[in-house]
Amino acid sequence: MTDTANVVLHPSILALVSLSANIAANHPKKGLCQLERLRSLGVSDAQIDIVVDIARHLRDEAGQMIDSEFNEAFAPAANTAAEPAAVTEGSCCAPTAKGNSCC
Predict the structure, then answer these.
(1) Keywords for this entry (predicted)?
(2) Please, are residues 18 and 34 in contact by the beta-carbon 8 Å criterion?
């Protein structure tokens, strides 16, 4: 087992992780603090955009799955909700609409 007590993440990695978690969790603060931090650290908008895209995709995919399960329990014969993107065998998730891999 790795001792993580002495592991330090680069501030930009920490801010990217925090930003994606805020977006994926629909946190009320929306990750705006992390966005400011990332820009002050010189992280490009293109890199931030990839993280935001993946976080939104995971958030939306989770919501679709929850909605689908609810719809099946509520009205199995009338389930008209959009199904989440199919996950191909061997992959951990479907790519985002922009084509970014979340795996």
Answers:
(1) Plasmid
(2) yes
